[in-house]
Amino acid sequence: MELIISLLSGALGGNLAGALLKKFSLGTLWNSVVGILGGGLGAQLLGMLNIDIAGIIGNIVGSGVGGAVLLIIVGVIKSAMGKS
Description:
Layout: H1 2-20, H2 28-48, H3 56-83
């Protein structure tokens, strides 16, 4: 169940970051895909660091932030490739 919450939170974080930062948006589908990957990575990272921020709330926040961060990273790389 935690994995599903992480993936959904990551997708939400990716889409929220895409909506707020139009410059880095990849479109709804790719914002979701990158957000899901970032959410999974964010949850794993929190687990490896033994960070437990109020259980499920921490999982949602960590996954959402992970999704947003990965979307921004991919957006920056995409922008840099387009300028060359």
